[in-house]
Amino acid sequence: MPDNISSPKKSKNFIYEIIDEDLKTNKWSGRVHTRFPPEPNGYLHIGHAKSICLNYGIAKDYNGKFNLRFDDTNPTKEEKEYVDSIIEDVKWLGADFEDRVLYASDYFEQMYDYAVQLIKKGKAYVDDLDNETMREYRGTVTQPGKESPFRNRTVEENLYLFERMRNGEFNDGEKVLRAKIDMSSPNMLLRDPVMYRIIHASHHRTGNEWCIYPTYDWAHGLEDSIEGITHSICTLEFEVHRPLYDWFLDQLEIYHPQQIEFARLNLSYTVMSKRKLLELVEKRIVDGWDDPRMPTISGFRRRGYTPESIWNFSELVGVAKRDALTDISLLEYAIREDLNKNAQRVMAVINPIKVVITNYPEGQTEFLEAVNNPEKPESGKRQITFSREVFIEKDDFMENPPKGYHRLVPGGEVRLKYAYIIKCEEIIKDNSGNIIELRCTYDPETRSGGPSTKKVKGTIHWVNSKDSLDAQVRLYDRLFTIENPGAEENWLDYINPYSLKIINNAKVEPFLKSVKPLDKFQFERLGYFCLDYKYSNENNLVFNRTVTLKDSWNAKK
RNA sequence: UGCCGGAUCGUCUAACGGUAGGACAGCGGCCUUUGGAGCCGUAUGUAGAGGUUCGAAUCCUCUUCCGGCAGCCA
Questions:
Q1: Is the CB of A69 under 7 A from strand B?
Q2: Residue A173: what pLDDT?
Q3: Is the CB of A342 under 7 A from strand B?
């Protein structure tokens, strides 16, 4: 985790308890070595972030090591672009893998040798059954399978055939190498699982060097073993794979890490499977993997989330073995907490309406002081300007206000933050009855910081019409309309059509003239925003709303 | 229907035979030049039935419900 956040007090989850016990019994000679092993077939999402935080957090807490390892065993699904994005995301999160960016593909030769060993022990064989027949032979969850007619080939024949597989003498699907275990095992994974399949495809790292590729079950334990991993932490769906993980390593009699499973993260109102995320990207429902509505790490980054907030969130959700659906509000809490403490405050009006202060001298401009961050006095103050015409938020005026409305109303008073108390004297409407301008008067005695003790119920934000900048603002809402879209067959039917709202005529204070991509701000009373790196440029400011402020008034209505 | 897991406030998560606690969300109040933040207060939970025990969320039995496994994906 980044050094600037303190290691949070974690109530020990069950994995920490296992490690504590291992340390006590000296099972791994005092070592702790974890890894994060993504397949480079997509961008990382917040669920991966939880795993990264868990694995790296363990390494850090126990003075151990943490590897980033690409499980690149299937060239048909993997791409260099994904490798690059994953490295970027893991680095951004601050999980320090030092110089250990590792690849399963670097172990292909060694894995091949191990496979030869298994064949020689009579524990693996080349099978000619085609895909469909093999499935039939596997049986079902309630019925045992039956053995392949090729199961009892001699060691010599298997060795010969396996070498020919490697040499490219067969077509895709023509032959596989299988472990010889038990076709009637109640655990389907143990019914002679495939170790190698023939794929004549170019691999993003090994090119055409190989045409046989190891399967997950064969490869993963070997990768962990080769790297000296102590605790191989994965998600619950691999629980039934553990006996197989153990079987391979036991047969080979090589270094044997311990696989531990935990429940993957699910977040409400979004989907988390790579397949579904890919579909959202390919169908252009979102604007790429880093669309700010995506639950990807790059999406959250572009949205304005900080690594610290994701770390904190990851601590808050905890680690256990039961399936869970975590409410998105917990993530929002984590980012608000961070940004409240750290974000520069600034005034911006998203939905402007012009206010003319009729008793304020024309042509006059005065300077006022605004606080940069009330949570951080050391961040100081800045100057803002005030003059006769300002913009306020349309929502901050109501002609016929409901009970409890604290803002500007006809004949009522409200404070313009850091400036004066104004009173609404007149409403100007166009021909169709839309309010286009408010005429107000100000009370010169009430300048902010002055001696006046006059109090009003409401304080609203504003910008000076003279020097405000135009900006585009992008407001995001949840991508789906239901809590758990991933559980639905027709999950795409639940896309929220209003998940992105683009506002083009926002006005922001000139302080935002020279901001950099991803710079983070609180627009007072509106929420946290950051500069979008994709659409923002010199002449066109574009801000993404990271999250709203909590709004107890809106919530009440 | 076979095997493997799992079930604690609305949500997430603690409690390891000895007062069911925390966080988020909610509600109420105080405070406030952000209806933000902060502070204070508050409601809500051990899936069910038996058993062991002085004492059970925790151990045992049965039941119910949920998840995973029948890719040459990971």
A1: no
A2: 97
A3: no
Confidence (pLDDT) at A555: 67
For residue A4, say whether its CB is under 7 Å from any atom of strand B. no
Supply the pLDDT for residue A557. Answer: 61
Same domain, A55 and A112: yes
Contacts of A353 (CB under 8 A, 6+ apart): A391, A392, A393, A394, A397, A435, A436, A437, A438
State the total domains in chain A: 3
Domain boundary among A452, A467, A482: A467
| A184 CB and strand B closer than 7 A | no
Q: What is the CATH number of the domain that holds A302?
A: 2.40.240.10
Positions of chain A with pLDDT under 70 = 1-11, 555-557
CA dihedral A166, A167, A168, A172 (to 10 degrees): -10
Query: Taking a C-beta distance cutoff of 8 angstroms, is the pair A285, A258 a contact?
Result: no
The answer as to whether A3 is a domain residue is no
Spatial CB neighbours of A377, under 8 Å, sequence gap ≥ 6: none
Tell me the average pLDDT of chain A: 96
Q: Are residues A518 and A373 in the same domain?
A: no
Identify the residues numbered 261 to 320 in chain A whose C-beta atom is closer than 7 Å to any atom of strand B. 263, 316-320
Q: Which nucleotides of B are covered by protein (CB under 7 A)?
A: 1-8, 10-16, 21-27, 33-38, 66-74
Same-domain status, A521 and A482: yes
Q: Which domain holds residue A225?
A: 14-267
pLDDT at A554 (0 to 100)? 79
Q: Model-level pTM?
A: 0.96
Model pLDDT, residue A11: 63
- Contact between residue A95 and residue A36 where contact means Cβ atoms under 8 Å apart: yes
pLDDT on residue A538 = 86
Residue type, A192: D
Residue A347 lies in a domain: no
Task: Specify the pLDDT at position A6.
Answer: 33
pLDDT digits (tens, 9 = 90+) for A33-46: 999 999 999 999 99
Beta bridge partners of A441: A423
